[in-house]
Amino acid sequence: MNVKTTLILLVLALATIFALVCVLLTKGRAPSTCQHQPLEQEDTDDGQSLVFADLTPEEMVQVVWYLQGNLGVQLVDASRAKPSDNCIASVDLQVPAKAEVLRFLDGGGARPPREALAVLYFGNQPDPNVTEYVVGPLPTPTYHRDITVQKYRGKVPYHRRPVTSKEYMDINALIQRELRKAPRFLATCCESDGTDLAILTTAPRGFKSGDRATWFVLFHSVAGTGYYLLPVGLEVLVEHRDLHVSHWQLRQVFYNGQYFASMGVLEEAFVASLLEVVRIPKPQAEAVLGSMRPQRPPGSPGPLQYEPQGPRYSIRGNRVTFQGWSIAFGMNPNSGPRLFDIRYRGERIVYELSLQEALALYGSNCPGGMLTRYLDGSFGIGRFAYELVRGLDCPYTATYMDRHYLAESETPKTNQNSLCIFEHDAALPLRRHFSDSQSLYYGGLRKNTLVIRAISTLINYDYIWDFIFHSSGAVEVRVHATGYISSSFLHGQGTDYGNRVGPHTLGTMHLHHIHYKVDLDVDGQLNSLETQDMAYKIMKEPWSMQNTIERLYLRRERLEREDEAAFLLNTPMPRYLSFASPNPNKWGHPRSYRIQITSFAGEHLPASSPMERSISWGRYQLAVTRRKEEEPTSTSIYNQNDPWTPTVAFTDFINNETITNEDLVAWISVGFLHVPHAEDVPNTVTVGNSVGFFLRPYNYFDEDPSVDSPDSIYFSSEQDAGACRANPLACLPPAAACAPHLPPFRYGGFLNL
């Protein structure tokens, strides 16, 4: 063996040793942490979106200080105010008029003054009332003006005010005093002295304007589980209209199908053996109906979604941008999520997209259940959007945002991490094609979306509010219902109103109806409403005149007036309905956005009902009206406690005005009928309990705008699909060979309760 060969073998041996050392050194080592790449700046907003931004805690405090010093009346903190006191009920953003905002955003005009809307309860006056003030300019207010009469065409009577937490506390104290009048009955029926029973409100509160008498339903309460499935059969009616708490009275009692004048009368009937008592032992925590405690130890972790190079969306203040989308987001403490100035590729598609109301209407053979029509906006859809649980309510690596509100207190509160924003991989192609003839190729695009989400807990129900933005230019709005069902005590013909789901529990049937406002500005403010649908026409075949054919054709129509554009619930509606611009696309069709509704709504309350006008928005699956500044919302927080003389009646918006080349608003209702069943215990699942709608481009573009997506995939039979330069999917193994940086799990959602 010569020296040259020896040297070659020595070099090879050293190289082998070096390679083995590298392998041994790296074996078992954790992958490197993913490195975030800076995003290309696509946001040219320059802070303009702050015109829509929710109030900061500092601004809220300034409004409170201003009102305390400039109204000339004594204001009591709402958290301890009696009905006979004056107090600040809430402070929220006063959204500027659309014309002012557009002059600022589009025309180079002055920024509209930043103002707050303050709601005050004046109980300590000769004429008690609810008054709304606009206070400004922020951050240092110098003026206020009463807009109540202008906004509602009259004063707001005091009895319409929502019930405060303090009022509920005083009612509960009254109920506890009354329960002590039936000790033997409670010990027998419920193994209780009454102090450990949960008390649930119903609504509305009477049968005519001015009433304020509420049925309250009593349940066994077990720590760590929902009491909503544990009714004891006892319900009480409390009259609480008087401004003086000492004058409130318990008016009636219901137990197991019978009505009594008072708890004392009920006790007398029990002692005299004139009452059929159903003994319901106090449930034990380990075996209680509806417990959500895990029944098995944790398993291995499931799939985890993460961004190897960091989020591909950008958030600045109250605006988020993502692959051509730009959205200003916020939260109304009463009505919930609200989005403004939604743009795609720099063009405004939607000026306002906001939740308006959530109605839950129940049926039962118990008074509380048969009466209940919850209008959740009066309780606070946004206010009760609590902290989201990282990794379950939203992806672990989502961006979590705090929301602030001031309600029933002079001190702002924060629901931390109560809104999340994330990119979602739907594990589904947005579009794709495999070509197996002529030329051989594959082309496709992953369905990745931007999601803005909040979840409201409204007594027993949890509503998941999603606003989803697709790379095709479509907007998807979706709500899921979960949480606990509400229930009644099972007696008599109870199963005419639902299903038995426990030993003494009737899962009561109910409707969920949700209402949205969609102020579309399609290629400008002036739009018209166009419909398209299919029809068949019988005709002779041109090439064979002795035969006929049912030819499918497109039937087009432009709706001219509001009455034509008000589509009643559960009636046929054109399959294609679009907001159309007067301007054509490249192919000569009006640039349009289509409204596509996915809903399984139950029947609306009969028009003969004396309270139907208060929820008259529910008559329509879709109604299109001319936009008016004096018609900002389809309902009011005051409708719940006086539905017989509603402060806002949506049906009055529809007065047959022309809707051709006008600034239009679409009012959309979605919902479903829910008949609870055994599988709703412990909780209603989101599967199948989702409704919503799409806003889809329809000839708005000249082709699908997602062709510009950087996520597009294309390779042919002549290319090496495994090569990174030919197929971005082949780049994933090295690009994703890193460990995501997961922040530590923390949760503070119980702090503000």
UniProtKB/TrEMBL annotation:
Keywords: Copper, Metal-binding, Oxidoreductase, TPQ. Its EC number is 1.4.3.-. The active site is at residues 376, 461. Residues 161-257 form the Copper amine oxidase N3-terminal domain. It comes from the Eukaryota. SUPFAM superfamilies: Amine oxidase catalytic domain, Amine oxidase N-terminal region. Residues 305-706 form the Copper amine oxidase catalytic domain. Its cofactor is Cu cation. It holds the Pfam family Cu_amine_oxidN2. GO terms for biological process: amine metabolic process. GO terms for cellular component: plasma membrane. Topaquinone (TPQ) is generated by copper-dependent autoxidation of a specific tyrosyl residue. The modification 2',4',5'-topaquinone is found at residue 461. Contains 1 topaquinone per subunit. One of its GO terms (molecular function) is primary methylamine oxidase activity. Residues 74-143 form the Copper amine oxidase N2-terminal domain. PANTHER family: COPPER AMINE OXIDASE, RETINA-SPECIFIC COPPER AMINE OXIDASE. Belongs to the copper/topaquinone oxidase family. This is Amine oxidase. It comes from Haliaeetus albicilla (White-tailed sea-eagle).
